[in-house]
Amino acid sequence: MNDKKQLLSAEQVDFLTEMMNIGAGNAATALTQVLQCRVDIIVPRVLVITDAQELSILTSPSLPVVCARMGMVGDVSGGLFLIVPEEQKEDLIRLAERAMTGGGQSWRAGITSQESDDLKLSVIAEISNIVAGVFLTAVHDFCKLNIYHTVPTVATDMVQALLDESLVRLSRQVQHIIVIENEFMVEENLIKTFLVMVPSVESVNILVNSIGQARMAMVKDGG
Amino acid sequence: MQNKIEVSMGKGAVTAAPHVILSSGLGSCVVVTLYDTERKLGGLAHIMLPDSSSLNGYHPPYKCADTAIATLTKELRSMRASPRNMVAKLVGGAKMFLSSDDFSPGVGKQNITSVKRILKQKRIPVIGENTGGNYGRNVEFYLDSGKVMVRAIGREDKEI
Fold first, then answer.
1. Which domains occur in chain B, in start order?
2. Interface of A with B (CB under 8 A)
3. B60 FRET partner, CA 20 to 30 A, in A164, A187, B31, B142?
């Protein structure tokens, strides 16, 4: 077989989940302010993927999604994606619209459908900015790593089609992709998001070592 | 009885009429179909990378263009397909994100170039193509006719 191996132990994945739980809590607080309504979180699921095939555990490859692609720079470089299934995109946009207009006149009044589509994508880009920012802050707080994300580029299509170029990089070298599946309860709407971190080959070890050290420090401190 | 065979990313399959081979969620990946027009048999590969020489150690045969096309033709020959009657069709090789800070041609373009070069060496004509652009595709390959249907979100279905 091939020489790919799991770099993170089961305990380290648990720790990562704990870290992302804090990130999700921060994201819910941020979304509460943006959407001006109550946002609850369901405990996130963290998956570390070492083979492109494993993506199918999460979703069907042709699931229509909206995806914001960002870059990671700083202590860890690579790619960062925020994915929202197409069927929940409209809910999210409707909630954002309500918050911004205070329930008054639609912002889409008097604009073309192209302008309306552009506006929707920019709402998704803005929410991606916020969510990515708070998750990276959680990584910083636990692991003392400074990671920044670049401006998002948003596209709507089938999930595997949007990710395959990044997944292809997996097969070139041993690499890890971290998928954080989050569910937010926004009033009665369940909004599912996937945050996908693709650390570059040069920085995957930095990330893994920092997670290991942070976990050990926490075990020593609190038991 | 018509069977539908689903081929996932980096995999391939060969079969005969009247079956159908499907592959979905193509972005920068390229699907190659080979079809023996006389015997009505063929195969499909969902290729991820242009070249296997950049990989170390073991890799699945259908992952890279060079080994995928070699495996497909070998499998088809063992089913008594004739290389003389073989025709190829290509789908995929998109660049999904158009951002202002990225001027690289992307893996999709490299995949298409590589597949075309290899098919030319093997003297297999490319008789249909739906490649490039910035959108994802689903593929259905009908072995009774050699027809390939390409479906994309928000676009009309294309037959090649």
1. 4-159 (3.30.1330.200)
2. 1-3, 52-53, 56, 60-62, 64, 69, 150, 153, 155-165, 167-168, 171-172
3. B142
Asked if A92 and A112 touch (Cβ cutoff 8 Å), the reply is no
* Binary contact (A1, B58; C-beta < 8 A): yes
Q: State the Cα–Cα distance between residues B40 and B85, nearest whole angstrom.
A: 10
- At A100, list the tokens: 């911004």
| Four-residue CA torsion sign, B126, B68, B98, A52 | positive
pLDDT, tens digit (0-9, with 9 covering 90-100), for A147-168: 999 999 999 999 999 988 877 7
Domains of chain A and CATH, by start:
10-222 (3.40.1550.10)
Q: Are the C-beta atoms of residues B59 and B52 closer than 8 Å to each other?
A: yes
* Closest partner CB to A161 (pick from B48, B107, B136): B136
What are B146's two structure tokens?
Answer: 């050699």
| Cβ count near A68 (within 10 Å) | 26
Rounded-to-integer distance, Cα A57 and Cα A54, Å: 6
- Does residue B38 carry a pLDDT above 80? yes
In chain A, % of residues over pLDDT 70: 87
The DSSP code for A137 is H
Question: Residue B67 CA to chain centroid, in angstroms?
Answer: 13
- The interface predicted TM-score of the complex, written ipTM, equals 0.89
Q: What is the DSSP track for A175-219? A: --EEEEEEEEEETTEEEEEEEEEEE-TTTHHHHHHHHHHHHHHHH
Is A31 buried (19+), middle (13-18) or exposed (0-12) by CB count in 10 A? buried
DSSP letter, residue A67: E
| β partners of residue B34 | B43, B88
A190-220 residue pLDDT tens: 888 999 988 887 888 888 888 888 888 877 7
Tokens in use for B132?
A: 């490039």
Q: Running DSSP on this structure, what letter comes out for residue A188?
A: T
Examine the pLDDT at A101 and tell me if it is beyond 60.
yes
- Contact check, Cβ <8 Å, B25/A165: no
Distances (CA, A) of A220 to A15, A20, A217: 14, 21, 5
